[in-house]
Write a structure and sequence with these properties.
The structure holds two protein chains of two kinds. Chain A has 25 helices and eleven strands. Chain A is an alpha/beta fold. In chain A, strand 6, helix 11 (304-311) and strand 7 (320-323) form a beta-alpha-beta unit. In chain A, 63% of the residues lie in helices and 10% in strands. In chain A, the strands form two sheets. In chain A, strands 7-6-5-8-9-11-10 form a seven-stranded mixed beta sheet, sandwiched between helices. In chain A, helix 1 (2-26) runs parallel beside helix 3 (61-85). Chain A has three domains: 1-217, Growth Hormone, Chain: A, CATH 1.20.1250; 255-486, 3-Layer(aba) Sandwich (Rossmann fold); 511-711, Growth Hormone, Chain: A (Up-down Bundle). In chain B, the strands form six sheets. In chain B, strands 8-9-11-12-13-14-15-16 form an eight-stranded mixed beta sheet. In chain B, strands 1-6-5 form a three-stranded antiparallel beta sheet, with no helix packed on it. A three-stranded antiparallel beta sheet of chain B has the order 2-3-4, with no helix packed on it. In chain B, strand 15, helix 10 and strand 16 (328-330) form a beta-alpha-beta unit. Chain B has ten helices and 21 strands. The longest helix of chain B has 17 residues, at 4-20. In chain B, helix 4 packs across helix 5 (180-192) and helix 9 (271-284) runs parallel beside helix 10. Classes of the chains: A alpha/beta, B alpha/beta. Chains A and B meet through strand 3, strand 4, helix 14, helix 16 and helix 18 of A and helix 1, helix 2, strand 8, helix 3 and helix 10 of B.
Chain lengths: 711, 379
């Protein structure tokens, strides 16, 4: 049973991570989408656990593993062809609500099977509560191992599809081996499984290439592969090279319009600039243009694998220095580059995720400022079209971004246009007349076409500039780590393109009353379980829910804060996930060994204290201590959660035998799904990090109070 | 130690207090309350629309465009800018311009219509089609309540032109057909005061409204989006045939006409389509009708498509020239010779363009300075 539980954890975490990656890549998901898809997954697990746990249902785990082995790669295949299969044109944006529904449907089979496997494995033994705790413990260990395997192998050595096939074969082989007790069956089975993985995986790339050709047709696919950070495709058509990242166009070569927009405007104000720091992919025209202007360019982007693939298709400038780091961990002086830059071009893309929106915070502005020479210029190119009109949503986004920039820089400017540019400096460089701008651009060694008097006279007309300034002064909002507003604002802009999205997203994001759903669910569940005659046992159901809700909320908060302050570093995020999974296992084990009656009290007290301590300390942790701080925090939070699950299991299941063995797990997962959907995605931008942590502490406090009442 | 019952009672009291202090809760939740998607308090216009028929059983049929919306009481047509109130049809956007700019006429693009001049460009919210690539979707696909509107009567627009010495008013960005009454009255008033009018349209308009409007317009630029009916159905949300019919009528009426074809990669960029377009223009509008091929940039619902490759645009140009069209232009390409106007007689540059700048102008009136050939258009 323990090995099967381990396999369940391995399969479940693998399925979850791989499917989420694929869905985001195929349906170009944003922050709201990720949480909705995660919610769908967890809900499917909860339903699977509940149905599979009914006493009259008995299923062999090996059958479920066999189905799961086929369903996981098949689902990935379906996800990849889903945009075309659902009638969308190549390049067409899929509206949020439809994408969310597609994701929920496609998450259902693997999630449901993962849920069903839990009671199916737990019912191997007569001891009810012991079996549930054992499965929970070893599932956690399996998830820990699976998570680390996915994080280290996918993107580095194997594609998501290969990983899915390998996981499927591995779990099926091991469960078949366990099914038989004879060695002469077991050994050939194990060898066959290993051989299938060893010889079968190399056959996958040609199939995946054909799939990519089908998916991107009529573009020519030059390369298509996974990185740690998403799915990449390098396409070509009629001589143009297109970089597709998670199904969106990230860059095109040649796109002179874009390259000039990024390089020329800072030079109009700072003609003597020599060193440029570019945050983004520079090979698609930016580095070539910088080269022809005699500029030194350092480009910071995490994706080392992408550099190799791009070099096979394009010839980036010899002067380009690529640094495969996150900007937040980039130390200019230690890398041998010039310590300070004359120009920093910050091009992280639209702030539709927390990963991108962290670049538009006062914290990031301070960081950028420290990289600039005195009199240096920051340029932020945005995707917002303000040439003819500034929409309400753009007003909100642009004024929020501008407020952040103004907070750290004394002087700012903005250029309207099909792409709005924000410029900032500590010096008063921007008070020059239009004629000087045009003359300076004219005197450059390279004569620009799009950013020249031919177009600028219209683009920088007083009417347009005044309209843009007016729009940027509409709101006083600041996007910060404490309250990241931009992903919501970006979601509203995106939703505007679809009537259903517009209604749904506007309701969720702009009506704060919707956030009361969470406390309402918590209070109703609390009252429903504590008010019963059999409250001692039934109150454990609330504890299951609380364990899931608090643990997932704290996990997501920790990831968010870490990423926002230290950067999206792949290996370090892996350490954090690993610490959390390990904590779950440690908590379960400790609670099993100690056999104390007050385990739940201690666990809830620890969760309460952790939330409060995190609230007080997260902003003052020194940079060098951050990773240790979050690792310790997650380890402790997960340990308390694991212990709480054990305590709840003991309390609910007691000595019962004919009982739904999946119910407690289902409720824990349901709590997790609520946490996934609401905590960081919906509530964080609405109420801010402080209130969110206080709310989580309050839930722990409520559960503690319930324990005192329902003795 | 409190009892279970008293604890529940405490929670109930707390909730009641919180509910009674309802002013506090929204403040606590704070966030994005200043966000308003719809502002239903905005005042819209209520000028009676033209070209509609009351239906015997109630409701009206709009006759401004080939869509012929049947609109019941308090409902709006497809465009969202016209509303039935008690079986009287009203335009909601009369005098409510949501975009106002002074653009170079080359930006429209109109290359044979008073080059080097400017146009006061206006638009209202709404559109009678839904192009997936729309550059102005934030006004064209919105309702008038969702946009920031300026209160600008036809008189105010004409006065603005005269004060700022802008010779032309351009009805543009969204689809002017849906603010027909506003456009008509402004154009009529403009002509009385020497201000010209140009319509930048998709050409999806009924015959009678167009016929009535043409005497008040000086030029029309039509976005011919494809030569395929299925493209119009799937990507544009309209029909091709009425557009082609209207193009012929515009040409016959003698109003200056230029065509724009937006080349969207993978969707309408085949050589066969360019050939069909060239042949149709030659046969129905004449070889002297300027045709502009525009570069697509990722917009609206087609954000995940790349811009049009330069080679595709050059292919379109080559095909049209080979088919005999005399004035074929490519936009948004660096220093491309196809931005300029060449004399079909002597082949020399007549109007040398670089972006919106004109660096060479070799026309005497509407005659080539070099060979004296008459060049069609208004110069």
């Amino acid at each position: 049973m323990k090995t099967r539980a381990f396999l369940l954890g391995f399969y479940s975490i693998g399925g979850q991570v791989l499917l989420l990656r694929e869905l985001v890549a195929s349906l170009n998901g944003d922050e709201l989408f990720i949480s909705t898809a995660l919610f769908g997954w967890l809900l499917a697990v909860a339903v699977g656990a509940y149905i599979g746990g009914k006493p009259n249902i008995r299923t062999e785990p090996v059958v479920l593993f066999a189905i799961g082995a086929l369903v996981l790669p098949a689902t990935i295949l379906l996800i990849r062809i889903s945009p075309g299969a659902t009638g969308y044109l190549v390049g067409e944006v899929i509206p949020f609500v439809k994408a969310a529904l597609i994701s929920m449907v496609l998450m259902l089979p693997v999630g449901f099977l993962s849920g069903w496997l839990f009671p199916s494995i737990a019912s191997d033994e007569a001891r009810v509560r012991g079996s549930i705790i054992d499965v929970y413990l070893f599932e956690g260990i399996g998830a820990f191992a699976g998570g680390l395997a996915i994080l280290f192998f996918v993107g580095s050595f194997v594609s998501a599809m290969q990983a899915a096939i390998a996981i499927g074969i591995a779990v099926l082989t091991v469960s078949l081996v366990l099914f038989s007790s004879r060695w002469f069956v077991r050994i050939p089975l194990a060898v066959a499984g290993a051989a299938l993985i060893w010889f079968g995986l190399p056959l996958t790339p040609p199939v995946e290439e054909s799939l990519s050709d089908f998916r991107y047709e009529p573009f020519v696919v030059e390369a298509s592969f996974d990185t740690h950070y998403g799915r990449q495709a390098i396409l070509s058509r009629e001589g143009d090279v297109i970089l597709h990242t998670d199904n969106t166009v990230e860059a095109v070569y040649p796109d002179l319009n874009n390259a000039e927009d990024l390089i020329i405007p800072p030079l109009a104000y700072c003609p003597g600039a020599e060193n440029i720091l570019y945050v983004g992919r520079a090979e698609f025209g930016v580095s070539q243009l910088a080269d022809s202007l005699g500029l030194t360019l350092v480009a910071v982007d995490l994706r080392a694998e992408l550099s190799r693939a791009v070099d096979e298709v394009l010839n980036p400038s010899q002067r380009l220095k690529r640094v495969h780091r996150d900007l937040f961990t980039y130390d200019a002086s230690s890398s041998g580059e010039p310590g300070n830059f004359d120009v920093v071009i910050l091009n992280p893309g639209s702030p539709d995720s927390y990963r991108a929106s962290r670049f538009y915070t006062p914290f990031a502005m301070r960081l950028v400022r420290s990289l600039l020479n005195p009199g240096g210029i920051l340029l932020i190119p945005t995707s917002y079209d303000t040439d003819r009109y500034v929409g309400v949503e753009e007003q909100r986004l642009l004024s929020t971004i501008m407020n952040v920039v103004r907070k750290e820089f004394a002087f700012t400017d903005a250029w309207p246009g099909n792409r709005t540019l924000i410029l900032a400096s500590d010096s008063s460089l921007f008070y020059i007349p239009y004629d000087t701008i045009a003359a300076r651009i004219d005197s450059l060694p390279y004569r620009p076409y799009f950013v020249s008097d031919s177009y600028l006279v219209d683009r920088l007309s007083i009417l347009k500039k005044e309209r843009l300034y007016d729009a940027m002064n509409r709101l006083e909002d600041i996007n910060s780590i404490e309250k990241p507003l931009l992903p919501h604002y970006q979601a509203l802009l995106r939703a505007k393109a679809d009537a259903v999205d517009s209604t749904v997203i506007t309701q969720v994001v702009t009506r704060p009353w919707y956030s009361l759903v969470v406390p309402a669910i918590v209070v109703l569940l609390f009252l429903g379980t504590i008010g019963s005659r059999r409250s001692r046992g039934r109150f454990a159901l609330f504890l299951f829910f609380v364990a899931g809700f608090i643990s997932l909320s704290l996990e997501l908060i920790s990831f968010y804060v870490y990423q926002a302050s230290s950067g999206s570093l792949y290996t370090e995020i892996a350490v954090l996930i690993g610490a959390f999974m390990l904590g779950l296992a440690v908590g379960t084990y400790l609670a099993l060994r100690l056999e104390r009656n007050d385990t739940a009290h201690i666990a809830l007290f620890v969760l309460f204290v952790l939330a409060i301590v995190f609230l007080i300390t997260y902003a003052i942790v020194p940079a060098w201590l951050t990773i240790f701080y979050h690792t310790l925090f997650l380890l402790l939070a997960a340990t308390a959660t694991g212990a709480l699950f054990v305590a709840a299991t003991r309390r609910y299941y007691g000595e019962q035998s004919m009982v739904n063995r999946g119910l407690g797990y289902a409720l824990e997962i349901a709590g997790s799904s609520i946490g996934a959907l609401f905590s960081t995605t919906v509530l964080l931008p609405m109420i801010g990090l402080a209130w969110l942590l206080i709310g989580i502490a309050a839930v722990a406090g409520l559960a503690y109070a319930g324990l005192l009442i329902a003795r | 130690m409190i009892s279970r019952r008293s604890f529940i009672r405490c929670i109930g009291c707390g909730a009641a207090v919180a509910a009674s202090q309802s002013d506090l809760l929204p403040e606590f939740l704070g966030g994005v309350q200043n966000v308003m998607a719809f502002d239903y308090t905005k005042e819209l216009s209520s000028v009676e629309a033209r070209y509609y028929k009351k239906q015997p059983g109630g409701g009206i049929e709009c006759g401004i465009c080939p869509r012929h919306c049947f609109v019941t009481d308090l409902e709006r047509g497809y465009c969202g800018a016209r509303e039935n109130r008690g079986d009287t049809y009203y335009t909601l956007v009369y005098g409510l311009s949501c975009a106002l700019n002074i653009d170079p006429i080359e930006k429209k693009p109109l290359y044979h219509f008073y080059p080097r001049t400017t146009a006061l460009s206006i638009a209202t919210a709404g559109c009678n089609v839904n192009c997936k690539f729309c550059q102005n979707w934030e006004i064209s696909q919105m309702r008038p309540e969702q946009t920031d509107n300026l209160d600008l009567s036809p008189r105010a627009l004409v006065d603005m032109c005269r004060q700022r010495r802008v010779p032309t008013i351009a009805y543009t960005y969204s689809e002017p057909v849906i603010f027909y009454e506003y456009m008509y009255d402004t154009a009529e008033l403009g002509h009385q005061h020497g201000v010209k009018s140009v319509m930048i349209t998709g050409g999806y308009i009924e015959q009678q409204p167009l016929t009535d409007l043409l005497p008040h317009l000086d030029a029309i630029k039509v976005d011919l989006k494809s030569m395929r009916e299925d493209y119009y159905r799937d990507v544009v949300g309209g029909e091709l045939k009425p557009v082609l019919d209207r193009l012929i009528e515009i040409k016959k009426a003698g109003c200056w006409l230029e065509l724009v074809y937006l080349v969207v990669p993978t969707l309408n960029d085949t050589e066969a389509e360019f050939t069909e377009l060239a042949r149709w223009v030659k046969a129905n509008l004449g070889t002297d009708t300027p045709v502009h091929f525009s570069r697509f940039f990722p917009q609206y619902l087609l954000k995940n498509l790349p811009p049009t490759p330069q080679r595709t645009l050059e292919t379109a140009h080559e095909i049209c020239v080979a088919e005999g069209l005399q004035y074929v232009y490519l936009g948004n390409l660096r220093g491309h010779r196809t931005e300029s106007t060449y004399c079909p007689g002597c082949g020399k540059i007549l109007i040398g363009r670089r972006g919106y700048n004109i660096f060479q102008y070799d026309l005497n009136g509407d005659l080539c300075k070099h060979c004296g050939k008459e060049i069609p258009g208004h110069f």
